[in-house]
Amino acid sequence: MPTIAPTCLARLAFGLALCSQAGSASAQSKPSAANTITVQVNKPGAPIAKTMYGLFFEDINFAADGGLYPELVKNKSFETDDRLLGWKAIRGAAALAVYNVISQQPISATNRNFLRLTAATASPDAGLINEGFRGMGVKQGAEYTFSVYLRRGPGSVSGLNVTLEEPGRAGGPGPETPLSGAVLAQTRIEGLTGEWKKYSVVLKPTATAAKARLKLTLEGAGTLDLDVVSLFPKDTWKNRENGMRPDLVQLLKDMQPGFLRFPGGCIVEGRTLAERYQWKETIGELASRQPLINRWNTEFVHKFTPDYYQSFGLGFYEYFQLSEDIGAEPVPILNVGMACQFNSAELAPVSATRGPSAAEAHSHADDPSLDVFIQDALDLIEFANGPATSPWGAKRVAMGHPAPFNLKYIGIGNEQWGPQYLERYEPFAKAVKARYPAMNIVSSAGPAPDGELFEKASQRLRELKAEVIDEHYYAKPEWFRQNAGRYDNYPTTGSKIFAGEYAAQSVAIGSPDNKNSWDCAISEAAFMTGLERNADKVIMASYAPLFAHVDAWQWTPDMIWFDNLKAYGTPNYYVQKLYGVNRGTTMLPVQRGNNAKNGDDNLFSSAVADDATGEIVVKLVNYSAEARPVTISLAGVKKLGKTGKATVLASPDLNAENSLKEPQKVAPKDETFKVSSSNVAYTLAPHSFTVLRIPGKR
């Protein structure tokens, strides 16, 4: 998503006048020609791409660490710039003579730092506490694997006490002391040696806590070295050892997404090229993955989050695996040799040559040329699709996935703009197509949906025969209703459109006061009828951002909110889900009576045929405070069933929101209706998004 900049705001705010609610209550109280919607069942249009509705994941709002990736220990390997980030000594470390991070004889060359604790005398206070990600969410009776690498030094340390506790207060009013708290689970690790050794135990909490913490204390006096401290739930998606948080994955799978775009977003770019996302650093052994500062950590004054890092426990292998798990096409986005243009705008030099020797001549650390970025893309495709006999395919196989991931799409750049992007895109795309001619390349039209830079980029990318052009728009709800016809006049041939990031902003772009209101969601539903009507031009679309932690967000609005234990879908989530599960297979032309356009009188519609189920699926948005009777005329339908199914998402309150306390305040409800002829009568609820599934063959 774009960082806030005045020029971007000006472009995104183009044409945001309020839509008037034409028509009176009396005019809407009975069917009229304008309320007759003709679906051309006998004149099917373009096929609906399997990728039509999907997901965009970016590590913002603690979406990965502290969210989808359920490791409970923050900074488990002491490799962040702030070596003791997330760790605090008990009572000011009065019992510890030494506690610091050093790098003498580490466990490996790729995991250079470890924590050394030295207690002058034996004490129950000789240790540290890890705070987790805004606490640690643990459930009563569930199992959590604690693991750590330990090495005993001088002295008589005989063990490590491991305690999972719920914070409490001691001594009445005053600040919380780290030592106090109810014990949830406790164990002791023994058998220490003078060499690095991994130890694992299982903790089972006796109570549920949303903000627990981990306490580690020495048994006896002396020195003990610690590294790769982990507390990981056994309850993960598919019970994988390094699996994802199951409730969050289930919410994604339930949407039946066609694709998963990852890892961002501005995360791809970094504030500088040195801070860019480098996929090769996110695969292989977990202990060897080097953490990186998260570019959203201090971006917003309203949510200053200096402790926000990426551990890369959720790396590119896990992204591909997740895509496979939820039935989505993986769509990785790679850096095009440009840091975020809203930050440093640093550029990698464009080399005149191309080849392995050129790439090897420029290291990642020493002012990398564009050749390095291009080689990363070629290597990624090999990692995803290559055989076990290829260098990068062998790395995928070694990680546990012998079969290729069957990667079909790759993105070149996130939302860059201007001539700097185009001059890097061209050699990048040329190199990818030369090696992998069948690969579909996703290109960028920039962060704004209009303006000179947008127009020039779109024109040039079409000239270059880009397969997919990624357009982004964050705007007020009314912009989405007014732009339901945005793609009506786009070319039907050549480059296709990916609506890669969009979300209605209830207050202003990037405002901390934005809400996931029903007004925003229903406006997005109205806009999406236009995407569906233009399935011959639009083949991918995704809301953004995807996830947000209620205690650690930077950007609003977001599709799915969660705390350390629970999660809920917003009204926007349910809009996206209803489109995803009702995607259909073929677009059907839709016409309004009296030559009304889509959106006139605040009535929006689209239709598809679902050949897999033998149904006609009609999507209807009534952005009106009054109920609206409509007639669905199924032109050319050959055979009809007697009963249809309606799924209705509605609220009389446009400001309504879901929450952890009321997760279903705005949620779909199913009902049936009779089908007696090819003219199907149905009354739309006020302020509603309705999906009608009508059994009928074409």
TrEMBL record:
Entry keyword annotation includes Transit peptide: no
Lineage of producing organism: Bacteria, Pseudomonadati, Bacteroidota, Cytophagia, Cytophagales
Pfam families recorded: Alpha-L-AF_C (PF06964), ASD1_dom (PF22848), CBM_4_9 (PF02018)
Catalytic activity line of the entry: Hydrolysis of terminal non-reducing alpha-L-arabinofuranoside residues in alpha-L-arabinosides
Keywords: Glycoprotein, Hydrolase, Signal
Highest taxon of source: Bacteria
Broad enzyme group: hydrolase
Family: Belongs to the glycosyl hydrolase 51 family.
Domain Alpha-L-arabinofuranosidase C-terminal: 500-688
EC number: 3.2.1.55
UniProt signal peptide: 1-27
PANTHER family: ALPHA-L-ARABINOFURANOSIDASE 1
Keyword match Cell wall biogenesis/degradation: no
Stated name of the protein: non-reducing end alpha-L-arabinofuranosidase
